[in-house]
Amino acid sequence: MAKVDFIAELMVLGYTIQEPDTLKVTFEFVVPIGPNIGKKVQLGFDVQNDYPMSCPPGPHFKSSGIEGWVEPPNNIHASTFGAEWRYWSRPFPDWNRSDRKVRTYLAHIRNLLSKL
Q1: CATH tag, 3-114
Q2: Which residues contact 19 (CB under 8 A, 6 or more apart)?
Q3: What is the spatial distance between Cα 3 and Cα 56, in angstroms, rounded to a whole number?
């Protein structure tokens, strides 16, 4: 399973995938909610080898240069994806009680974005 399944689920949802390296997956994402609504950003995930048993640890946003981009005030770090990226340390605490699907994980991301 792992990355191949994660990518397949994203493609079913209509996303065009980019793959920077072995475990990283990135794609263009239009923010659907919150103060960043309508902004196009690159969204990235570290997909673990045991997906769907484990979900990605948190989102990476390529937000450098996006005018007016709003981030949470804490738990934001440099990203392993590169200098223009930011890692939001926001684990999905209910993953093991969910259906363990990408669409459910993206709902978690939308929830994070709505609370900014």
Answers
A1: 3.10.110
A2: 7, 25, 26
A3: 10
